[in-house]
Structures are given as structure tokens and as C-alpha cells.
Write a structure and sequence with these properties.
Layout lengths: L1 E10 L2 E10 L2 E11 L2 E12 L4 H12 L8 E6 L7 E6 L5 H6 L17 H5 L12 E2 H12 L3 H6 L3 E6 L5 E7 L2 H14 L9 E4 L5 H9 L4 E4 L5 H10 L2 E7 L2 E6 L4 E2 L2
Parallel strand pairs: 3-6, 7-14, 10-11, 11-12
Antiparallel strand pairs: 1-2, 3-4, 5-6, 8-9, 8-10, 12-13
Helix pairs in contact: 1-6, 1-7, 6-7, 7-8
Length: 273
């Protein structure tokens, strides 16, 4: 995940040669083995630049975000091709998974920053993304205030490099269940939702996803595809992220830091004093 480089560091007091720890970045090709009538076919789905590690989760999370898979019964296997560490992952779908319908509905290249790729508008995307049903899930403001410190203690890569994003899964009481890092914020979320999918946790209706990034439209899409009820970010959201979260009845929080945060959508899930 990390590499070491010799660099020249310049300060107001002069220059010195130091060793710096850097986040690794390499391409990952994701291939999908699916069925066309009675024949097994392998298709190149995407190439994404990522920090190696938890590649199985990343591949599964991307397919979940894209709507290629929705239930565990549609996934047969996910494995590296060739010797590990490998920059190729093969996802094998069950016969009942309709990959062709997904492919024909898309008109663009898939990347990790996609939520539901190839869709031209928020309205078109919402045809594929499930709207959250009414629920009784509530989170205290004190729990939200505790998230940044809890996440920092589970970001070893960021602590060494300052160059990795993180996505973490919390319960309503603030218990951290998983935290995964990547050089890309989209990849970090795909790794997290892929982990949840492989561990039978999806949909994440009674969980909080907290991210060390801003809240973009694509992240709202990806979270919604995993059934996330509450998405919180250290940075601020975009206008389209807010509009989409409101339409999907998701709770969207921004600027979660320094004992404060803003509620942009789904404020009924947050219990404040």
C-alpha cells in the first residue's frame, strides 16, 4: 500500500534530504464472467487507479454501485488473476444475473468515480437507485461529533502519508465496524460497500457511513445503491449531492469536524439537543 522515496525537503531554515512514505497507486482491471444464453463470456468492465489492497472488496463494491449485482445470490466468486499481488480481478456472476441488460442500458465507460454510469441526469439515475423507505433509524448528534476522532485512529495509511481517503462504517451508537483506505475517495467507498456486501451487511439501512472527503453526487449514488441511510463527510457536499440525497430520502451530513456539522438532507434521523 505504501512506498518509500528519497526527497529533498525545503523549509524556511534550509534544505535536507529525507525519506518520505507515499501512497501507492496502480491500475486495477476488473473483468466480469457472465452468461449469454448457454455460453460463459468474460467482459472487461473497468480499469480504475487505486491503492492496492482489498481489491476483492473494491471490485464487488463497484459492481454493487453500478447495479450489476444486487443480491448475494448473483455473485459466484471474485478472485485475482495470475500471481498475487495482481492488478486484475475476475468477478464471476451467477446465471441469473442479467449482465446484458445492464450493459445495453449504459452508453459510457465505467470508472471508479461512477455511481450509475452512463446516465445523463439525476432523474435518469433515480430510476436505478432505490429510494429509502420510511424507517425508525435515529442517530444522536453526540455520535456524529465522535466520528472524526474514531476514524483517525483507524487511518494508518493516512497517518504515514497524508495521501489516502477513508470510508468507515459505524453503528447508531458510534461503534466502528470497518474502515478502508484508498487514494481515491470513490474507491474507498467501493471497498467499504464491497466489504459489507461480502459479509452480508447490505442493505446498510441502520448504519452510518463516514468519509474523509467532500460529499459528491457520485458518493451519494454509491451509498444509496448499498442502502445507506446516513452519509457523513468531513468536507462539504455539492448541490447535486444534496438534491439527490433529498430525493432518495437519505440523510446527508457535511463539515463533520470540530464538534459541529450541517444537515443537508434527512434531518429527521438526527437527534439534536
Amino acid at each position: 500500500m505504501l512506498r518509500t522515496f528519497s526527497v529533498r525537503r525545503i523549509t524556511a531554515d534550509g534544505a535536507e534530504r529525507v525519506t518520505d512514505r507515499i501512497a501507492e497507486e496502480e491500475p486495477l482491471a476488473i473483468l466480469v464472467k457472465h452468461w449469454q444464453k448457454d455460453a460463459a463470456v468474460t467482459t472487461n468492465l473497468a480499469v480504475t487507479m487505486r491503492t492496492p489492497g482489498h481489491d476483492r472488496e473494491l471490485a464487488v463494491g463497484l459492481l454493487l454501485a453500478e447495479g450489476v449485482i444486487r443480491g448475494r445470490e448473483e455473485l459466484v466468486d471474485v478472485r485475482a488473476l495470475g500471481n498475487e499481488p495482481s492488478n486484475e480481478m475476475l468477478v464471476e456472476l451467477a446465471r441469473g444475473a442479467d449482465f446484458e441488460a445492464w450493459r445495453l442500458a449504459r452508453n459510457g465507460f465505467v470508472s471508479s468515480s461512477c455511481g450509475v454510469c452512463g446516465k445523463r441526469s439525476r432523474e435518469a439515475v433515480q430510476q436505478d437507485v432505490p429510494v429509502l423507505e420510511a424507517d425508525e433509524f435515529r442517530v444522536g448528534a453526540d455520535v456524529i461529533h465522535s466520528l472524526p476522532a474514531a476514524l483517525r485512529s483507524h487511518q494508518p495509511g493516512f497517518a504515514e502519508t497524508g495521501g489516502l481517503h477513508a470510508a468507515a462504517l459505524f453503528t447508531a451508537t458510534g461503534k466502528l465496524e470497518a474502515a478502508l483506505e484508498d487514494i481515491g475517495r470513490h474507491n474507498a467507498l467501493d471497498k467499504l460497500t464491497g466489504w459489507a456486501f461480502l459479509n452480508g451487511r447490505v442493505p446498510l439501512r441502520e448504519r452510518i457511513v463516514f468519509m474523509s472527503s467532500r460529499g459528491s453526487f457520485e458518493l451519494v449514488q454509491k451509498a444509496a445503491m448499498a442502502g445507506v441511510a446516513v452519509l457523513a463527510t468531513v468536507g462539504g457536499p455539492s448541490s447535486l449531492a444534496i438534491e439527490t440525497a433529498r430525493a432518495l430520502q437519505m440523510t446527508l451530513l457535511g463539515f463533520v469536524r470540530e464538534q459541529r456539522f450541517n444537515v443537508y438532507a434527512g434531518e429527521w434521523r438526527i437527534n439534536s439537543k
